[in-house]
Amino acid sequence: MSQFNFTRIRDDVKTRTDRLDELLGFQDAAKERWLLVSPHDDDVAIGGGMWIDAAVQAGVRVEVIIVTDGRMGYCSPQERHTIVPIRCHETYKSFEMLGVPAPQVQYIGYPDGSLYDLQGRRAARPGETAAIEGYMGLQNAMTWHLRRVRPNRVFVPSSADLHPDHRITHQELLISIFHAAGAIWPELGKPLDAVSTLYDMAVYSDFIEPPNLELRGSPQAFEKKLKAIGTYVSQAQIEHVVQGLRDAGPYEYLREVAFPVYSPLRYRSLFE
What we know:
Rossmann fold
């Protein structure tokens, strides 16, 4: 028996299945590759831990990139200068529980809370150790990771989230997906064969528009997710997060995102 049940809403019609391949319309899980872009280490486990588990169980290769290093997540004076390696250890343990081994979890490693200064792309300055091919910036790093992983589906927290790191990550990822599928910046790797399908997940704030995909997990799958989130013991508030999720039940949601590509055809009928 499947540990997961799924529902898709399309044109006000609800389609229900216990098969991930039927839900998303793929034939061969071995050809699927998912990339989850997490502004902070715990975000995608909170918003999509059971989606990760379901994908892994279906035979999908799942990779994760974590944008920030977690340095602002210390909850005691003693951890102020040691929180980064502590959270890194917790992160690998968390994703291992969800079936994603450490080599498939990569850090961009930009300073937590400082993404405003790292939008776009610029030449690296002396001493900047996170540079890729001589450049810094979210669009540089994300384009490189997208071409490295070559995902057909990408997942990221919603742009409606109150945390600035979440909003910036979402915004920079959208343009980076287009960069990755184009010919720009060849030193960052071979362009993608097609633009990846993008999905929003909710973490701390609501979706900008209602989601169209629902996952309902079994009690066992739900407990696995909660235990994976609970590994972040350095985060003093994590027990409240886990309790809030427990109270809400074994449900997760995604919103498939349509890229806002402009065409004059969209407006021609207005003037006829």
